[in-house]
Amino acid sequence: MVRLTIDGFPVEVEKGTTILHAAEKLGIKIPTLCYIEDLLPDGSCRMCVVEVKNNGRTKIDTACTLQVSEGDEVLTMSEKVIESRRMTLDLLLSDHNVHCFSCEANGNCKLQDYAYEYGVSETSYEGAKSGGEIDDSNKFFRYDPNLCILCHRCVNTCTQLVGRGAIDTMERGFQSIIGNGEGLWADGTCESCGNCVQACPTGALVMKRTNKYRPYQAQKRVRTTCPHCATGCQMDLIVKDGKIVDVEGADGPSNHGLLCVKGRSGSFDFVDHKTRIRQPLIKNHETGEFEEASWDDALDLVANKFTELKNQYGGDALAGFACSRSTNEDIYMLQKMVRTVFESNNTDNCARV
Amino acid sequence: MSITSKEDLLKKQTEAQEKIDSYTCRILVCCGTGCVASGSMKIYEEMKRLCADLDGVEVVAQKDVPHIGIAKTGCQGLCELGPLVRIEPQHLQYVHVQIEDCKEIIEKTVLKGEPIERLFYKHDEKPCEHPEDIPFLNQQTRIVLEHCGNIDAESIDEYIAAGGFQAVVKAFFEMTPEEVVEEITKSGIRGRGGAGFPMGKKWSQVARIQSDIKYVVCNGDEGDPGAFMDGSVMEGDPYKLMEGMIIAAYAVGAKDGYIYVRAEYPLSVARLKLAITQAEEYGLLGDNILGSGVDFHLHINRGAGAFVCGEGSALTASIEGKRGMPRVKPPRTVEKGLWEKPTVLNNVETYANVARIILDGADWYRTIGTEGSTGTKTFSLTGAIENTGLIEVPMGTTLRHIIYDIGGGIKKGAAFKAVQIGGPSGGCLVEKHLDEPLDFDSVKKFNAIIGSGGLVVMDENTCMVDVAKFFMGFTQRESCGKCGPCRIGTKRMLELLNKITRGEGKMEDLDKLEETAKFIQSRSLCGLGKSAPLPVISTMQNFRHEYEEHILENKCRAHVCEAMKVYTIDPDKCKGCTKCARNCPVNAITGEKKEPHTIDQTKCIKCGTCMDNCSFGAISIK
């Protein structure tokens, strides 16, 4: 074990622990833009610098990469540290299209938060912006290089967490942008899962959802299970004015914050869709139209029909097939009904994707 | 034929030496990059053609007509004087050889043994017959470059004849891997790639780690503007590099090696490929080398033109097929390098030292150079100097010795101003540093680095702000874009420098420049960013007055910065011929015929056409 102090508080951690993790243990938050838990640190944003004194020597280095040493005296908010973070933000803002009012990420932007926290209201540099055209080619989200701070969270998420590797840094130096190397975003191997969007700390990658909201307008977040396949990804539905406006991958045992394209972009729009069937419907044989009915009437009708079929042809004539979007409990109940009521073993479901 | 034991190698050495001795005359045409650029391949072809005729004569008429071998040698060192041709065994060095001279060389020197005086290099009017007579060459200590220019870079036999692979024999059969590492450690050699990390320490770290797979990687991605040392070694003596890598592989227990060569060095790639093929045919690479049980396979990887790939982790990422970007450390390359396996990564020159250290011992090696920086260092000497070229001198040699004794002083007798050392990652050394020893530690004190060894000499006609701008432009273009300080900071610095050289700078821009430079230097992720501001920092330190002149007086004393050039007509010299006025593209010059003319500075676009056209030398830049 290694003993050190962080902002004067003593802490004991295992050898090889980074200062960032040691600080976390003490509940001290160090700002990061590029850091992703569980991955080899990218170390590119330089926000997490801390001042470390040891053996009469002082150095300033990134907390996400620096491993603890015995006797370290770490300062996370010293004057030098703050000055360095201000400079980092100053440079980032000098190459950032600052139009927070109309930015999708307003209120949900780490660059904005830190710039506010460290009192950097505008850049002190004149000069060109790297810029570039907005890539609107993906159906579900868009990439605006004018807002990109090149933290590579999207790339690292896609490559190392999702395992798709659809995007990488293109060009070099000041002209660097994120792309797939083959033209537009949609031309590559991207599956539109949107985990990159969730990883983006600014408004460079945003979903093209029509339900606009600011994070602070959300009334509640509802933790739920993705309704699509049997993986059981955990997700948070974000509710504004009584309606679901967004979904975010949550840290569940099977998904660790990730979602697929169906989970992220196909799991809540139907809830409030105007053509959604909200009542049982029974077809009127005379007019040929479906008409609203009570649950009792509808269930009676179906029960009678199944009983008729069973009496006439036997249980083997019936089968029950559960949709993979059903929960395990519902699927279980369905097969139970097929076996005990239908007296048939013809039952299955498609939860194998 | 394959060489399967050390006895075989000795036999091959004797055979190869006998073959060389059997030549009565050998024409060595330098085919290093510098000489190729000045047309040495044509000389080579011509010589071959002429000698083919001679062979015809030999067969038919006389039995004792000289048997001529033409070797493609590596860089012989005097790039300024190319194409270079050396005649052995008379040991004559010809310079500036032209196609027309070939016939005369054959007729006089080759057939009759007569020297051709006009082709000799002249030092103080005195012809220098032999390479040793040329001050540029006779004041060097050649270890890395010992065979460059002396052997055929495409003949493994010549390398073997010159004692090649004997260090492998000694390492394999007389030393344990631990002893090899120990010898390298004892020699005190530090990596020649720039950082100067002790080579022995690196090797012993990799040797200590338990792993089935380890790699030996060579950094041949020399990308500094004005540097061509490693390229010259790869072109001129690829075998020496290979021998160093085989020994490294034995010492640390690696079975595979990679040489990462920059894309702009096609000749290096071709020579290395050939060298590897030859060595594989002889069994000097592959399984069970010399019957020792040691396996080592060597592969070549070509870079794709990114300067940052000279950085270790970017280089290994590039070999793996990923984007060449540095990653954070730890883990270090010695622990998790190529394909996350323990990896020895040294540069070309460093490996090229290994064979001699093993053969002659660490104690001998320590006698060369200084205590903290042992051995020699190759430098590519370029810029405003009489003799440009590749040199190798002991560490600790003074800049004065290099510039004035070896380099022959500043070109055209101009005044010395500075030397850019270490390329875009380095800084400038000035007059007061001339007598300081050049080694890893001393140069660092002056805000510069030895780096890979580029020496660009600058005279009074160089604007130091412009120099800083040039190097800043280079690193800004070559930044990989990963971390903010380097990606955005270098751009902002370049913009500030552009502003100053355009004559629009303000004094506070200097503070901003300094502040940004220090931030980039201390906060960048990798060595490229950390060293990128050095040219600005060191020129600001040594030539702050030039920066201030640009800002306060709108003056560029070297008359380099376009915006500050003021073309004026000397009324005493102007004859009123009207030529300047007629040629001025913006009609900025007016004046009556046969009367002195004047330039309207508000209209002048500083194109210099008037000065080029003036027959009386009446127009000058102020």
UniProtKB/TrEMBL annotation, chain B:
SUPFAM superfamilies: 4Fe-4S ferredoxins, Nqo1 FMN-binding domain-like, Nqo1 middle domain-like, Nqo1C-terminal domain-like, Thioredoxin-like
Matching InterPro entries: 4Fe4S_Fe-S-bd, 4Fe4S_Fe_S_CS, NADH-UbQ_OxRdtase_51kDa_CS, Nuo51_FMN-bd, Nuo51_FMN-bd_sf, Nuop51_4Fe4S-bd, Nuop51_4Fe4S-bd_sf, Soluble_ligand-bd
Annotated ranges, domain 4Fe-4S ferredoxin-type: 565-594, 595-622
Signal peptide: none
Keyword Ubl conjugation: no
Keywords in alphabetical order: 4Fe-4S, Iron, Iron-sulfur, Metal-binding
CDD domains named among the record's database cross-references: TRX_Fd_family
Plastid among keywords: no
Family note: Belongs to the complex I 51 kDa subunit family.
The protein, known as: NADH-quinone oxidoreductase subunit NuoF
